[in-house]
Every structure is written in structure tokens, then in C-alpha cells.
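Annotated sample (chain length 239).
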Amino acid sequence: MSDTKIALISGANKGIGFETAKQLIARGHKVYVGARRPAEGEAAAAKLGPMAVFVAIDMTNPDTFAAAAERIGQLEGRLDVLVNNAGIGPDAGMKPSETPMELIRDSFATNVFGLMGLTQAMLPLLHKSPAGRIVNVSSILGSFALNANFEAPLGPWRSFGYNGSKAAVNMFTLTLAFELRDTKIKVNSAHPGWVKTELGGTEAPLDVAEGAETSVWLATLPDDGPTGGFFHKQESLAW
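Output written by the structure step:
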């Protein structure tokens, strides 16, 4: 078995996902760049260099999960790191009472069901790793504690689709971590922070390099690292 760690990152063609790939490659990982559009994924992999390989991942198409798992399995024999980075927020700024159901369904289809489906497809390969790591990119906006504080300065970020989907991601992290508690696979949720991305906007205080820090830390945890946690830059967050 090669000493080079193998990682798959969904939504790695841009933003935090691309930066996460860049930082993991700098640490010696080989990264499969998951992207929905081949042209964008191939371009991102080319920018990242020879340790990056594009693989088609469409979070609303489970067939791409199975195909990616088969390809990685044939080429690598295992997967050491899965970073579930891809996510959308189509209802940002909308009132829960006025949000079209279609947008709610879209949020959960990608952020929850897609994330779960991809994880399930990759788990057999993660079990073959001597130290598997699953990082679910969540958000502090999915925190019940924060949303329950009516004085919290969330501004327009009190939408149900995005916030609710990230709360569901956190519950998936907890339940999967419990299931895998006696294995070598660690499962954690990451809050990147408010980052300058298409979703975060230009007013965000953090750049993508800072936004990727939490995912990279959780992807490279030592054997005695945490599992079943919710973190931002190595600090625990309230569920």
C-alpha cells in the first residue's frame, strides 16, 4: 500500500473546495477533484498539478457516486479522506414562511441527500484505509444554539433551507460517528467561517485559505484526534 494518502473532495473546482485540495496536496495527498462540470473539474485539476485528478461528482446524481467509487477503488484500492464540501444556499435571505418548496428541496437534495449518498458510496473504500477521515462541511448557521438566540446578528442568514440542511448534516455527522466509533474512521463537521466565496459574498472577512483550514485539520487528524465533533479552527462549536 502506497504511503500517499488519497482524498476525494466534492465541489473542489472552486472556492473552499479548491483551496482544501491545494492545501492537502501541499501535505502530500493525492486529491480527486470532484466537480459536476467536466470542463471546470479538468481545469481545476490542471491548476492543482500532477497530484490532482478530476472525477465527475454531481450531488444530485447518485450514479456519479458509484462510478467515482469504482474508479478510485480500481486505481487506488482505498480512500483515506472524504471531504463533503459541495453545497448550495438558494434560499439565502428568504423568510421561512415565503420560501418556495422547490428551493427547500434543492437545498436538501444537494446538502443532505447528496452528501449522505456520496458518503455511503465511499465508505467501503474508507474502511480499507488505515486511518479514514470524513469531513462534512457544515456551517454555524446550522447550529440550533445560534438560531435559538434571537439577539444573534445573523441578519438575512435565518433562512430555513440552508440552515436546516446544515443542521441535518450535523446530525448525520453525529449518527455516523457513533456507528463508526469502533473503527479507525473519524467523522466530524467543519464550519469554515464566513468566507469570500460565491455563497459568502465579497463582504465576508475570511479568505479561502482561512476557510479551508478547518477541513484540512480534520482531514489530517492523528489517531487520537476527535470524532463526532463540530469545529471551527480546532475550537468546538455548539450544536
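Annotation: The helical segments are 15-26, 38-48, 62-76, 101-126, 144-147, 160-179, 208-211, 213-219.
Annotation: The longest strand covers residues 30-35.
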